[in-house]
C-alpha cells in the first residue's frame, strides 16, 4: 500500500473543500466574478472527488474489478470511443430524445384536455398516479414483447415514464393562476383559449419546466434499464449488462460516465432554457 498517495489525496480534498467554503462566502458585487465563482465551485469540488477517488484506489491497492481509478476509466474512454459513440446514438439520440418528446408532448396535450373536462380530472389523474407507480422492471419486458427488441420498445418505456410527471405537473401549473387574475381576464371578456395562452400557461411554465427536468433523468434511466431486457447488440444498457458479465468493469464505468455526462448536459440545457423563458418568475429573478 502507498499511504503517501492516500494522504496526498485527502489533503488535496480538504484544501479544495476549504477553498470552496471560502469562495461561497465571498460577497461579490461584480456579476461576472459571481458567475465565475458559481462555475469554479462545482468544478473544483468535482476535481477533488476524482483526485480523492484516484488516490484512495491506487494507494490502498483496490482491485480494478471492484473499483477502477478514474485514470483507467478515462483511458478506456479514449480507446473505446467508437463503441461508446454507437451506444450513445442508440440509447440517447434514438430512445431517450424520441421518447422524451412523445411522452412530454402527449402529457402536455392531455393535461389541456384534463383541464377542460372535470370527468377526466376525476377519472384520469388517479389512474395516472397508479401507472406512474408501476416498476420499470415490470413494464420494460412487456414493452419489448409488444414493440420488438429495437429502439421503439425503449421509446415506449420512456413515454410511459415521462407521460404522467408532465401530466400531473401541467395540471397543477394550470391551477396556479390566482382567482383575482382570472377575474381580471373575465372583465376583459377573455375566452378560455385567450386566458389559457395569456395567463394560465405562463403561470404554469415553472411547473412544466420542473416536469421537463425530472423527465430528462427519468428518460435516460428508463431507456438504459429497458435495454437490459432485450436489445440489438448496441446501446448503453446492453453494453453495461454484457461487460459486467465479462468483468470489463472499466468499460462499464466508461458507459456510466458517458450516460452521466449526457444526462447532466440534457438537464442543464433544459434549465438554461427555463431561465430564458421564465425570466419574470421570482425564483429566476432572485
From the structure above, extract its key features.
about 290 residues, mainly alpha, MetI-like fold, 2 domains, 12 helices
Describe the structure.
The protein is mainly alpha-helical and 286 residues long. Helix 3 crosses helix 11 and helix 5 crosses helix 7. The chain has helices spanning 3-24, 31-59, 70-79, 81-116, 118-132, 136-147, 151-174, 179-187, 192-226, 236-245, 249-277, 282-285. It is built from 12 helices and no strands. The model has no long low-confidence stretch (mean pLDDT 85). The protein has 2 domains: 3-62; 77-285, MetI-like (MetI-like fold, Orthogonal Bundle), CATH 1.10.3720. The longest helix has 36 residues, at 81-116.
Amino acid at each position: 500500500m502507498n499511504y503517501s498517495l492516500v494522504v496526498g489525496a485527502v489533503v488535496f480534498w480538504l484544501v479544495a473543500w476549504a477553498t470552496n467554503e471560502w469562495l461561497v462566502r465571498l460577497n461579490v458585487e461584480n456579476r461576472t466574478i459571481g458567475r465565475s465563482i458559481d462555475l469554479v465551485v462545482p468544478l473544483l469540488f468535482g476535481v477533488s472527488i476524482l483526485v480523492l477517488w484516484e488516490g484512495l484506489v491506487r494507494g490502498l491497492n483496490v482491485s480494478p474489478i471492484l473499483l477502477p481509478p478514474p485514470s483507467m476509466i478515462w483511458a478506456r474512454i479514449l480507446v473505446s470511443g467508437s463503441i461508446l459513440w454507437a451506444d450513445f446514438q442508440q440509447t440517447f439520440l434514438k430512445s431517450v430524445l424520441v421518447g422524451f418528446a412523445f411522452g412530454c408532448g402527449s402529457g402536455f396535450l392531455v393535461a389541456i384536455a384534463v383541464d377542460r373536462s372535470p370527468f377526466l380530472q376525476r377519472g384520469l389523474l388517479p389512474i395516472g398516479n397508479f401507472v406512474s407507480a408501476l416498476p420499470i422492471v415490470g413494464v420494460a419486458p412487456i414493452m419489448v414483447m409488444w414493440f420488438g427488441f429495437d429502439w421503439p420498445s425503449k421509446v415506449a418505456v420512456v413515454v410511459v415514464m415521462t407521460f404522467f410527471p408532465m401530466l400531473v405537473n401541467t395540471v397543477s401549473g394550470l391551477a396556479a393562476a390566482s382567482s383575482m387574475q382570472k377575474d381580471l381576464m373575465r372583465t376583459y371578456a377573455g375566452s378560455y383559449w385567450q386566458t389559457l395562452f395569456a395567463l394560465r400557461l405562463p403561470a404554469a411554465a415553472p411547473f412544466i419546466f420542473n416536469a421537463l427536468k425530472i423527465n430528462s433523468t427519468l428518460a435516460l434511466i428508463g431507456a438504459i434499464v429497458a435495454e437490459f431486457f432485450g436489445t440489438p447488440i448496441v446501446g448503453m444498457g446492453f453494453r453495461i449488462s454484457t461487460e459486467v458479465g465479462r468483468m470489463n468493469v472499466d468499460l462499464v464505468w466508461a458507459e456510466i460516465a458517458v450516460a452521466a455526462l449526457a444526462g447532466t448536459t440534457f438537464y442543464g440545457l433544459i434549465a438554461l432554457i427555463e431561465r430564458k423563458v421564465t425570466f419574470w418568475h421570482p425564483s429566476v429573478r432572485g
